[in-house]
Amino acid sequence: MKTILVPTDFSKNADKALEAAKQIAGKSGAKLLLMYAYQPYIADYR
């Protein structure tokens, strides 16, 4: 593995997943790539 993608929503479970990914990356020498996607609310004015 070269890169580990870690999606996050900043929840407690996401923090646990990040910790696991950090351990895997440390053992394998992979880079961590964090991703957070945000979809803004757009009101529907019809």
UniProtKB/TrEMBL annotation:
Signal peptide (UniProt feature, chain positions): none
InterPro entries per UniProt: Rossmann-like_a/b/a_fold, UspA
One Pfam family it belongs to: Usp
Residue span, UspA domain: 1-41
Coiled coil: none
Transmembrane spans: none
Source domain of life: Bacteria
Protein name: Universal stress protein
Organism (species): Dyadobacter psychrotolerans
Taxon lineage: Bacteria, Pseudomonadati, Bacteroidota, Cytophagia, Cytophagales
